[in-house]
Amino acid sequence: MKSVRLAILLAFIFIGAKVFANDEPPFYIQQLDNRNGLSNSAINALFNDSDNLLWIATWDGLNLYDGTSFHVFNYSKENNTSSIGNNVVQQIQQDKNGFIWISTIEGLSRYSKHTGTFANYFYTHSPRLGISEREYALLNDSSKNIYCLTRQHGLLFYDFKRDSFVSCKVPFPDIKISRAVFDETNRLWLLRQNGTLEVYTVNKDQYTLLRQFRNANNFFISNNKVFYTTATKELYAVDATLKANFISQFPNAIKAITSYKDHFLVAWSTHGFAVFDQNFHPSDFMKDEVSGLQNTKITSWENGTEQILWCGTDGNGLIKIFPEQKYFGSVNSAGNTQAFNKSVRAFCENGNALWVGTKGSGIISLPKFNASSTSQDIAPEKPFAGELDNNNVFALFKGIDNLIYIGTDAKGISVYDPSRKVLIKWDDIAGSDELPSFASVYAILQDEDSSVWLGTSGYGLIHISLQRQNEKIAVKHFEQYVFDGTSKGPANDIIYALEHGSENKLWIGCRYGGLNLFDKKEKTFRIFKAFSYEGSLSHNDVLALYKDQHNRVWIGTSYGLNWINESNINSPQPYFTKITTADGLPNNTIHAITEDNDQHIWISTNKGLVKINPETLAISQFQQKDGLQSNEFCDGAVWKDANGVLFFGGIFGFNYFEPNKIQLNTSFPNLLITGLQPGSKATDETGLYVLKPNENSSLQYTLSRRENFFELQLRALSFSNAEKCEYAYYLEGYDKKWHYSGSDGKISYSNITPGKYTFKVKWSNGDGVWTNETVLFPLTIKQYFWLTWPAFALYALLISSGAIIFGLYKRSQFKMRMQLQMEHALRTKEEEIHNEKMSFFTNIAHELQTPLTLIVGASEQNIQQKDDPYFKSLLHQQASRLTYLVQQLMDFRKAENGFLKKQFVFLDISSFTKNITSLFIPIAKQKAMKYNMAIDENIQGWVDKDKLEKMLFNLLSNAFKHSPRNEEVDVDIQQNATSKTLNVTITNTGCHIPADQLDKVFHRFFTSGTSSQEKFSSGIGLAFTRQLAELLDGSITVSSENNYVKFCLSLPLPETVDAASIIETESTSLAPSYLLRSIISSAEEKTQPAVANNKMATLDHIENDNKQSVLIVDDEMPIRSLIREVIGHLYIVYEAENGTEALEFMKQTQPDCIISDVMMPDMNGLEFCEKIKETPATCHIPFILLSARGTIEHKTEGYEAGADAYIAKPFHTEYLLVRIRKLLEYRKRMHDIFKKDNIYYEIEEEEIADEDKTFLKNLVRFIEENIDDEKLGGEELEKHMCMSKMNFYRKIKALSNMTPAEFIRHIRLKEAARLLTTTQLTVSEIFYKTGFNNQSYFFREFKKLYQCSPNEYRVSQTNIGG
User: Fold this and answer.
1) 3-class DSSP state for residue 1286?
2) Which of 174, 334, 880, 1174 could form a disulfide with 380, with the two C-beta atoms 3.0–4.6 Å apart?
């Protein structure tokens, strides 16, 4: 074992200072054993099958080697179909169907690579006696039929159809056969136990003996030749005529013979092996390997692909011997100088010597270095030992001026003059002391004018020109470009690469600054940054630059290779083609770039060298095992000599090679597919499938929709370049492009949509050559059944059937629905007629409530005050108004039903209309309104007097009703002689109707607007007026703008009328009807404006300050007058026309009670009530609502607004008086409770409402229980009573006339007073005990309530008690 390792080690060692190229040791030896995954190091047999899989028979299981790893098959008692029958494996063969046959010490096993299952033969559970090591031996003929030689049954043939072995009728059955083999010509060779070697021809079951050889103890077949040995260790060869020829007698017995590279290799039964030529003469071929393996016992040979020879050993595992095809010269040792233990960064030629710049060892000179020589001895020298200012040499450049420029980490740049053999340091160059300081020169490039460009690390770009001056070197020109953020400087001051560009330009590679293009003439920089746009550089860390012969610029970065044609660089966003590991590179860090004579691009990386075909972008990789100094190379370390030899520097020396001598492998390995799992139907883990290049597989899979995924592992069956092989895959019908996974063959797809696909693969051979795309398997993903076409057809059938059934059903339903709709329409019509009637009568009833209220009230007052003419006049007026309403209602219904007739009289229209319009002069005076009447004189004609009177009265009543005080009403009556019409225009200001509601003005009981200037309502008057106008063939229109409303009435004035329409009368009165005069006439002395009455009431309040006051809010002046007359002798009465006026009035005067109508302009009674009850200062005032709307719903609405009483019109005056008196008395009684000492007792005894009693008791008890809590406030009371802040405030204010804070303070003071009289506690203890925290505040509030201090109160109460 130690000798093997030693031999392997020697194969990799360089001796002395010798540089190996093509004459390096011709073979590599690699040992694979248990450390690599082999199950046992004692090997019995090797077999390379037709798929190029290597099978190894060991004493502990069957092994399969795929070039990367071992797969072990062992015996398993639990699962016979997935394990071999015994772990001691002796032989391996393959039949014509691709099955692998294994012989063990107990029987035979047959393995199916596709299914991963075993079939076992001859194994029995019964114990056997006398089992030998060769109980079963396998052999196959040229047709790959399987035979088995057994010790008990002789030679057997496997019948594939019957899956069993049958006996072969071999002659001389009594003589045992010890060994049997078929040769290449299908002749059967048998070795008998008596030492006879026989050869037969086989024809079905016929065995014909050709010849016998005596005294044989073993035989071998190799390279179509048969050899046999004797007991005396003599070796004979049998020729084509079956004649035995003596070869030699050997000192050792022979274990195995094989043929390799035109030589015979003989393994001795003891240890070691020997090599002979085709004539079996001893040969020096593989003499180092023979020496290295002399102590190794070889048990078997196997010739593999890729010129590999496999050796099975007894205890040393598997030995792999293969020729060393290294095209790379490698220099990584230099005697005892240890020169190349540092990184190589630069190359230069100086005469016949090769100069190598290192990082740490300065410059190494290799004299007489011949790169084309296959082997040479060198004596490395250090020409400047101790002379260089710095031994880190990063750049060497031999210029056209015959100077060698040396870039180091030292100051400036050094120059070597070969003609004088002198090293000139920067400080020794004339004029250098006057220049800016710079150092760390990493790149050197010379122009045609001999000037030199220097790329530095931290000092930007230097342009320098040197010239000889006698024996010195002087600076002729110097210019420095550094980063300044503009186009006058590079993107970064760290420059690792320089390259000539076209058109007098210079390419510059900046670390972390991107690619720069310098215009030497304009002296400007153009910068190309990564990630700035689609198609930009792969990274900004530029390490290497090269421009090839086709003007392609190659840019190496720390994240991939980029290239661009220089002619495309002038576009605003030039596109850079990227090549990364995803495209086949072994590593993304590009250290150096160059081009060989065949125009191939070579790059160095952190994982070896790469050759790229720039036309096809095919990539070939070379790694350390190919002869490289290591896999890692150095930045910018590349050089090409005059003969086209390429030099690359790395971390352990350098490599040199002639690219045209590197012959790439054009053959392709097979592809091993393992771990194939289509959906959840996983194949056996031991199942294998091998795909050969350009051959499609027979696999195909159909998966359900729920199992729409698969995964597998690809592995190239290469025993030399497995790690360099790459893979690509494509699911046709699913993927848009090929996936290149590099050397990782793990593939997984999931969530594939239903459809038919073809999975294709291709792979490379490790040298950048790819196979054609190959179909691995067709794949079908089934759709869910409910989404398939049969399912859709079924759905269509069901839908069609359903549609027919539904259609029939809908038809019957339609008939039924139409019948029901007809019945419903009739019922709806009846309900609409009923609702219309109810609505009409409800509104009419509302119109009648006001005169009825006045009539009832006036009659009651007239009974009490018999001689008061006001109430008699009021009775007469409201009775007339009620009569007019009823009469108008009857005429309205007649007009609607078409029963109202025209009744014409010839009339002085001017006088008649003047009399009617004059009736409204008193009303204008009462409201302080401007009333203008413009009536043309001498208007005469046929008119319907009654209808004209009603129309004018309704329009004027409407105008005065909706005009506030101090507004204006205009009446304009004209005759149009041309059209022969009477035109009446009535305009009132202070009112507005929205334009979208003008057409609704003539609807019955129309209401519009929300504010005081927009409020407009009508009963049936305007609707009746339009009916009358239409009856007389006239028209009426309305308009509203600029805060006025204008009605225009146009009536025809016919010259003649139908005699039937004329009213026969002796004389026609021009005065208005008695009914109209009665309606408008009023008791003026008692219907004064609210402002005037309030002034009188204020004076009365001053004289009688103990008299309670009542505020009456109603837009009807007669109603206000009636209520004032009813309650005026008991209370001071204030008035307001609506809620807004009332709120404004209450800012000055606060009444004790409020009586309000509900329906009022501007702000109605409900809104007014809510305002009062939500205002803390007024929420305690009793509020009575009067309304013509007396339903339960309307009363509920009033009480929700906060009203204390709700009285429907018409009402009895006595009832109103009682309600006012009771509300005021109840408030006074509640307020008096809190003036007494024992409040809780008073609440309990006083006759108050149960609801209020419960509220107060609960509230007082809570305060008394928490009276010592100084933080007790209204918020705590609200939470305890479960009331909102406003509702609680309103309630407590109404009951106690105190705010919550005042109420708490009042209870505290009452408790303090009690403690002063009933306890001996000090005053300080008492005010703290009652929740006061400030003594002065306590004393002040106590004195306000009791008009004395606490001590005085205690003394006074004690004296009283005494």
Assistant:
1) helix
2) 334
Of 1226, 1258, 1287, the residue at which a domain comes to its end is 1226
In this structure, of 31-35, 344-348, 912-916, the range with the lowest mean pLDDT score is 912-916
H runs (alpha helix) in 717-788: none
Q: Is residue 1276 part of a domain?
A: yes
Is 0.85 surpassed by the pTM of this model? Answer: no
Round to whole Å and give the CA distance between 367 and 147: 67
Cβ atoms within 10 Å of 912's Cβ, excluding its own: 24
Same domain, 1127 and 978: no
Q: Does residue 1178 share a domain with residue 1285?
A: no
295 Rama sector, left if φ>0, alpha if ψ -120 to 50, beta otherwise: alpha
Three-state DSSP state, 230: strand
Domain span holding position 1163: 1088-1226
Give the lowest-confidence range in 340-349, 412-421, 633-642.
340-349
Give me the CATH number covering residue 1128: 3.40.50.2300
Residues 1016 and 951 in one domain: yes
Quick check: helix, strand or coil at residue 425? coil
CA angle 682, 687, 693 (to 5 degrees): 110
Q: Helices (DSSP H) in 1086-1238: which residue ranges? A: 1090-1103, 1117-1127, 1139-1146, 1165-1174, 1192-1200, 1213-1233
The neighbouring-strand residues paired with 497 are: 509
| Percent of the chain whose pLDDT exceeds 90 | 42
Confidence of residue 645 (pLDDT cuts 50, 70, 90): very high
Q: Does one domain contain both 146 and 242?
A: yes
Total length of the chain: 1362
Helix axes 1250-1265, 1285-1296, angle to 10 degrees: 100
Per DSSP, 494 falls in state B
Cα 1253 vs. chain centroid, distance in angstroms? Answer: 64
Which of the listed ranges 288-302, 690-704, 1063-1077 does the model predict with the highest average pLDDT? 288-302
Whole-number Å distance between alpha carbons of 320 and 826: 107
Structural domain ending residue among the three candidates 323, 339, 365: 323
In a domain, 421, yes or no: no
Beta bridge partners of 417: 422
Which single residue is written with the structure tokens 């074992």?
A: 1
In angstroms, the CA 1123 to CA 1210 distance is 12
Amino acid in position 1074: Y
Contact in structure between 1111 and 1165 (CB atoms under 8 Å): no
Structure-block tokens of residue 524: 């400007």
What's the one-letter identity of residue 253?
A: A
1205, 1258: one domain: no
pLDDT confidence of 336, banded at 50, 70, 90? very low
Task: Evaluate if residue 247 carries a pLDDT over 80.
Answer: yes
DSSP-derived letter for residue 349 is E
Q: What per-residue string of b and e applies to 202-228 under the rule 16 or more CB within 10 Å gives b?
A: beeeebeeeeebeebbbbbbbeebbbb
Model confidence band, residue 1229 (pLDDT cutoffs 50, 70, 90): confident
What pLDDT is stored for residue 444 in this prediction?
Answer: 97
DSSP class of residue 13 equals P
Confidence of residue 850 (pLDDT cuts 50, 70, 90): low
Model confidence at 923, pLDDT cuts 50, 70, 90, reads confident
For residue 1041, which phi and psi values (nearest 5 degrees)?
-165, 155
- Number of domains present in the structure of the chain: 5
865-869, 888-892, 973-977: range with highest mean pLDDT = 973-977
**Does 213 lie in the same domain as 275?**
yes
What pLDDT does residue 856 have? 53
Tens-place pLDDT, residues 869-917: 555 565 555 666 666 666 666 666 666 666 677 777 888 888 878 877 8
* 146, part of any domain: yes
What is the pLDDT at residue 338? 52
Nearest C-alpha neighbor of 446 from the set 407, 484, 493, 418: 407
Q: Do 635 and 496 meet the contact criterion of CB atoms below 8 Å apart?
A: yes
DSSP per residue, 623-668: -GGGT-S-S-EEEEEEEE-TTS-EEEEETTEEEEE-GGG-------
